[in-house]
Design a protein that fits this description.
Blueprint: H1 8-23, E1 25-27, H2 28-35, H3 39-51, E2 55-58, E3 63-66, H4 68-98, E4 101-108, E5 111-118, E6 133-134, H5 140-147, H6 151-157, H7 174-187, E7 190-193, E8 200-208, E9 214-223, H8 229-249
Antiparallel strand pairs: 1-3, 2-3, 4-5, 4-9, 5-6, 7-8, 8-9
Helix pairs in contact: 1-3, 4-8, 5-7
């Protein structure tokens, strides 16, 4: 496989996007002439980009410009980079202080994705890794990501979830899950009490934007033999403090 091989059609599509980024807007003739792309090729590429929302065509001026789909992708990308970059130093501090495993996750459709996992020195083998998807109904971060959705959005999402039973403690009833999420929102944090993996408890807190939207969630996990009583309460306060600092670093307001 040639590492430097580039697909000509993709290269030309990217050239067009970069050209429009520089020029703000341009006619069909300006695009194909400036970039040296054959008319038929330029036409098909622009038609495809327009149909997918990456390029807009204004009929009154016959000019092309960048589409809002790029804004959407850029926003998601920057949010991902910012939250992970800001979270890692804080999570490292928490791991160093507690020796427990900490995670950062974000929502993707009806699932979550681990975008950071930092392991502590306490011996515990968790079935998670960066890039892995996780269920929302039975994980601490998943519950938090659901609970902080707007009511209409949450009501739309819940029926789409696959309420797979992972342990005897997993909530698989939609009404019970809905009631449980209201409790999570009211108390301000989520608990996975051996619902995703046997013998594992996990605490989760939201990372919030300036207007209260959930940007992601952080969690701390460990064996139920340690995660109990006063120690569990102390860990919850430590995690809450990190979630607050992370939210504030991202321009958010954590509230009380």
């Amino acid at each position: 496989m040639q590492e430097n091989y580039q697909v000509p059609a993709v290269v030309r599509a990217l050239d067009i996007l970069e050209f429009l980024s520089d020029q703000k807007e341009a006619t069909f003739t300006e695009i194909h002439a400036s970039l040296g792309i054959p008319k038929s090729t330029a036409y098909h590429i622009l038609s495809t980009l327009t149909s997918r929302g990456y390029v807009r065509f204004a009929g009154d001026s016959s000019k092309y410009s960048l589409g809002l789909r790029l804004v959407d992708l850029g926003t998601k990308s920057s949010s991902f980079i910012d939250i992970r970059a800001e979270a890692l130093p804080l999570l490292r501090e928490l791991v160093a202080k507690t020796n427990e495993t900490c995670n950062l996750g974000i929502l993707d459709g009806t699932e979550g994705i681990y975008i950071a996992k930092l392991e502590g020195r306490q011996f515990v083998r968790l079935n998670s890794w960066e890039g892995k998807r996780f269920s929302l109904h039975c994980t601490a971060m998943g519950k938090v990501l659901l609970a902080w959705q707007e009511e209409e959005k949450r009501a739309e999402m819940l029926p789409k979830l696959k309420l797979v039973r992972h342990t005897k403690n997993t909530i698989t009833n939609l009404n019970k899950l809905s009631a449980h999420l209201r409790l999570v929102r009211k108390q301000g944090w989520g608990l996975d009490d051996q619902e995703n993996e046997d013998h594992i408890r996990c605490l989760g807190h939201p990372v919030l934007s300036f207007d209260g939207r959930v940007l992601g969630a952080i969690s701390i996990s460990g064996l139920v033999t340690r995660f109990k009583g006063k120690y569990l309460q102390e860990l919850n306060q430590e995690l809450k403090s990190v979630a607050r600092r992370l939210s504030e670093n991202l321009g958010g307001s954590f509230g009380e």
